[in-house]
Specification:
This protein is of the alpha/beta class. The chain is built from 19 helices and 23 strands. 36% of the residues lie in helices and 22% in strands. The longest helix has 19 residues. It is elongated and about 95 Å long.
Length: 558
Amino acid sequence: MARSFIIGTRGSKLSTIQTQQAADAITAVHPSFDYEIVYIKTEGDRKPEVPLSDISTDGIFTKDIEDELLTKKIDIAVHSLKDLPTIIHSDLAVSAVTRREDARDVLISNGDLRLDQLPRGARIGTESPRRMSQLRAYRDDFNIMGLRGNVDTRIRKLDNGEYDAIVIAAAGVIRLGAADRIAEYLPISMMVPAPGQGALAIQTRRGDVELNAMLKKVEHIQTRVATDEERAFLGSLGGGCVVPIGAYAEVKDGSVLLHGFVGNDSGKKIFRGKMAGAIGGARSIGNKLAQRLLAQGAYKILGGEIDYEPLRNKNILITSERRLAEALSLGFRELGSKPILFPTIKTMPLDDNYYLDSAIRCVSDYDWVVFTSGNGARFVLERMRELGCMICSPKVAAVGPATARALAEGRVKVDYVPRRYLTMEVVNGMGDVSGKRILLLRSNIADMSLPVALKKRGAIVSQVDAYKTIQVSGGYDKLQKIMCDSGISYIVFSSTSAVASFAKLFGAGSLAGIGSKIICIGPVTAIAVRDLGASSIVAQEHTAEGIIRAVLKDYIGD
């Protein structure tokens, strides 16, 4: 071709090698391709000692090059795809993505030690929040230290003894001919790479039709499909270089398997997931996996990075008592919904504490004390404080994580928390109870399935009311108006007594034909709903957070 093209890139040794590889790929399919490479300093290059988290500009390694492209000082830009923002200028296009190098991260260490061989407190260098988060999640004893600079600089700092090990992209190390320095390739299951890592993006002006058509022949389809899904995942989360986000897609036999990761800086809260789908789904896999992790709670980590209101304008009727209702209301409002509080029960202290006080004073005579609700735990703990008593010798079972948390707040050691509130799961988890004295502290209207099952196992069971639950009287007209006028999408039940009270108010003591989806805090509550003629969705975790996740999962899907 008569035209000579100017290719712009960063001036580092790695960028030079990568750009030459891209130019060679073009020449391989267009032997007459004539070009010149020019080097452009980006903001990231001009501030080599400034931590990336302190540079707020998006595209710190690409924007200056893109500006040269927009002003027609260059014709082609070559970037590491992981550095390119998911949203680029409307006049620019990624015309081709070349065949990807190994996308994994690698460990380079003094003594060629693997990650699990490093000593406690080992100094590991990396500037990536994504790597920091996953390293801390893997081993919280590591001393993670910031490390800027090109690949050669990072390895030199390691060799000078400033670090015990560094974590870096495999692609850069391999392209620089330093693969012999790699001590370990970190598995995707432990260290999800950055979206687009290992791939090169060839960027042009959208209006340069002839050049774009020519570059299409350089495209590596599998790499493009994989990185499109990874970048769709990143784009759906609204994250950039300073947010711990990872994504890696594998393309095989016409399908895509996408791995995703979102974590906080400390590595204490991480969300991982994977999703498969057919090629050609309009990047739907990346978007769907992002929505799944957001629904699991990743939106709390991302904070201001994303406006996440998936339940916008959905009306959710909450029938729980005050404490739980407030937590649910706050959580649902954060997700854009309109919670409507309609408590159908109230929990109150007992009128007469004689039997409860007697049980508390003799609590050391029992082998097990079982709390079946957070309310029961709070009422008992308050009464114990008034009496100056404490639980000291018996084992304690807490049915549900909310109950366990309430007891922990009162400094009561919990020995057993069943995974689900199913009678036989509770009983089986307590082991051999034959001849054991067991104290059940519960509501005045609690069902009898648990004490009956324990007695069948030979336990000596004492049931004592810790508080009373009363049904809210009246409210039929108000409930009918809410159901007719508000367009209720979901109704939340957190106890069998709330179900019974609601059904009574709803009319005819039935939930058949209610028209709204029902969310239950646990399987026992779901059985009560089923017995009244309706189906329900059961929260996997019997807490406010579990209920919210159940609604999100139902609305967004898997």
